[in-house]
Amino acid sequence: MVIFSVDVVNKAGGLIYQYDNYVPRAEAEKTFSYPLDLVLKHHDEKVIVSFGQRDGIKVGHAVLSINGADVMGKSTADGKDILEYLKDPSNYPVSIRFGRARLSSNEKLMLASMFHS
Question: Alphabetically, which GO biological process terms does the record hold (predicted)?
Fold first, then answer.
């Protein structure tokens, strides 16, 4: 039996401790040419796929890295907005890695509060 997460919630419903045994299961990396055939959008400080599943890339997957450099929220490693970077044809061909993003601290709080009666 595997334990995926440990949440300690106090009587008032506040999250005291949270441990996530997170192992990314499904990640897909693909090299794209211009124009990008997936529709991406900003959602909760991440860039996610909103339309166009293919080759293991599913709706809801987040952009994890571009050309081998990890992304930080909505921006690339050098501080450019991801959507603006991908609109520029001079940046292609581009290799993008997609996968399930980690939960933010706010999402962890909302999830833990669901267990309080």
Answer: endoplasmic reticulum to Golgi vesicle-mediated transport
